[in-house]
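Hi F.,

I've been meaning to write this up properly since the lab meeting, where we talked about keeping a consistent format for the predictions we share between groups. The idea is simple: the sequence comes first, exactly as it goes in, then the structure tokens exactly as they come out, then a line or two of notes. No screenshots and no reformatting. I'm using this chain as the first example so we have something concrete to point to.
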Amino acid sequence: MLNQYVYCPRLAYLQWVQSEWADNEFTADGTWVHRRVDRREGWLPTPEEAEDLPFRARSVTLSAPREGLVAKLDLIDAEASEAIPVEYKRGKPPKTGEPGQPSDLAQLVAQALILRENGWRVERACFFYAESREKVEFALNEEMVAQTRAALCRFREDLTRVAPPPPLMANPKCGDCSLASICLPDETLLLQGQSDGAKVRQLLAPSDDALPLYLQTNGLSVGIAGDVLEIRE
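Output, unedited:
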């Protein structure tokens, strides 16, 4: 939920308050990438129980009541009271040089906060990118923690709204969003008079009610004469 909120507050509201959902190729690919870590519910020992040996746990659900968080962690590498959360992601690392997108970073930092509240020392976190098969590790810092907690506060406030937050303005992220056909960002801004003259982008494939034509006889060809479709032998 936090990942989606940082990606787009309107997306999070539509999904988690208004119960809207739609799949696209990216959400389906994400489900496929997580097929291994989501195969079954995992278990994580306490730091004391894992003190003498490395421990790897998959698909572990943990909560942190003080932080107000609950999450299913893809993978946890634990040893000697230190835990490293590993989040699986489709695609490749960002070209910006950052370890992950801002929304993904918020998600992974939230997992680190959950582990800390459960007694673990967490100083590092890691993304595993399925397409490039790269593991990107980074050090946690207080700025990341503060930004994540601030996003949580904003999210909780927005959940009480009586109407969804406004759409993003001419943002390229809208083209990859599975809820674009429900959100209708450009159309909504245009109707609200907030489009600033920007054109409505064609984010969705146009409807095509025509039927396909199948030719099953060798030697036939198809052509157009004026407005007439001709099948010639």
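Notes:
The chain has a mean pLDDT of 88.
Helices lie at 2-7, 9-16, 25-33, 102-117, 142-158, 180-183, 185-191.

If this format works for you, I'll send the rest the same way.

G.
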